[in-house]
Write a structure and sequence with these properties.
Distance between the termini: 90 Å
Structural class: alpha/beta
CATH class of the largest domain: Alpha Beta
Oligomer: single chain
Radius of gyration: 27 Å
Number of domains: 2
Shape: globular
Number of helices: 11
Helix content: 40-55%
Number of strands: 10
CATH topology of the largest domain: D-Maltodextrin-Binding Protein, domain 2
Largest sheet: 10 strands, mixed
CATH superfamily of the largest domain: Bordetella uptake gene, domain 1
Strand content: 15-25%
Order of helices and strands: HEHEHEHEHEHEHEHEEHHEH
């Protein structure tokens, strides 16, 4: 019947049109998947990298982070940009990194504060220092020292303790990170003193108040304190390590006066949990190569930093051990979690 042919032709056309449309959609989807695969196959890094630091500019961690960022930029062929996110004893930066995309473009240069002490200094944390991060490399250790204002009439740790006992409630110390806090409170416990805590967001801010005489004592890192020591504004009484430090060999350990005192800060490089292992391995390889150079070690020693590198696996074990170790230190210092 003649009228039937147009109907059959329309049906065929509709089927052909549908098939062509489906094919186009299929091709588009395939191209999208191919593009994703190609992007995933791009060599790392394909764009600038953000290196987050949990303390303010001018702090020890910031100083080391900027040196490492400069060196990594050259070796990776992409800019590594330092981003300071101070606050809440490192919690703000740690939480930000933990929630960042695990693609290798957000790295974290941090210390024992966020990754060993905080679990014991706070009742709850918005991140887990082990579960939420991929360890890349330990960079090294940073011995701290006990410093006082130039006008305080003491020259040794023993004299400071005697002065504090003779003038109860008159000396205040700056707490800018876990090491400065735990160090001073450990002195209070072992020596029986009552140094009063004044909390700060960063070491540079605390050091300025210390040199201005608004407080008298601090367990401070070498980077921020040494320039003021050399300028005669601060006096060094002792180092926090159990033995003398090669950075200040003429200064005795606090442990010579307070038996058992041993406190060392460390820092290292992390990425968000789930970052691809080839990316972690690449950054670790480049970092360890940088830290093996004598000129770089000398450069870091000049700012009071002792290079002591570890790769991803041993660094991961070290962090887990440090969480337990700092728990003991915090407990021994009788610091109640906030």
């Amino acid at each position: 019947m003649p009228s039937g042919f147009p109907l059959r032709s329309s049906a065929v056309n509709a089927v052909l049109t549908f098939s062509r449309t489906s094919l186009l959609y299929a091709l588009a989807a395939a191209l999208m998947l191919l593009g994703t695969d190609l992007r995933a196959a791009e060599p790392y890094p394909a764009k600038p990298i953000r290196l987050v630091v949990p303390f303010a500019a001018g702090s020890a961690t910031d100083s080391v982070g900027r040196i490492l960022a400069q060196e990594l930029s050259q070796r990776l062929g992409q800019n590594v940009l330092v981003e300071n996110r101070p606050g809440a004893n490192g919690q703000l930066a740690a939480t930000f990194v933990a929630k960042s995309a695990p693609d290798g473009y957000t790295l974290f240069m941090t210390t024992n504060t966020s990754h060993a002490a905080n679990p014991h200094l706070y009742k709850t944390l918005p991140y887990d220092p082990v579960r939420d991060f991929e360890p890349i490399a330990r960079v090294g250790t940073l011995p701290f020292m006990l410093v006082v204002t130039a006008g305080l009439p003491v020259e040794t740790t023993a004299q400071l303790i005697a002065y504090a006992k003779a003038h109860p409630g008159t000396l205040a110390y700056a707490a800018a990170n876990s090491t400065s806090l735990v160090g001073a409170e450990t002195i209070n416990v072992i020596a029986g003193t009552d140094l009063l805590r004044v909390s700060y967001k960063s070491s540079p801010e605390a050091i300025l108040d210390l040199t201005a005489g608004r407080l008298q004592v601090m367990v401070a890192d070498f980077v921020t304190a040494i320039p003021h020591v050399k300028a005669g504004k601060l006096k060094v009484l002792g180092v926090t390590t159990a033995r003398r430090s090669s950075l200040l060999p003429e200064v005795p350990p606090i442990a010579d006066t307070l038996k058992g005192f041993d406190l060392t800060s460390w820092n290292g490089l992390f990425a968000p949990a789930g970052t691809p292992q080839p990316v972690v391995a690449r950054v670790a390889r480049e970092t360890l190569a940088i830290l093996s150079r004598p000129d770089l070690r000398k450069r870091l020693a000049a700012i009071g930093f002792e290079v002591d590198p570890l790769g991803p696996e041993p660094f991961g074990r070290y962090v887990r051990d440090q969480v337990a170790y700092w728990g003991k230190l915090v407990h021994a210092a009788r610091i109640e979690p906030e």
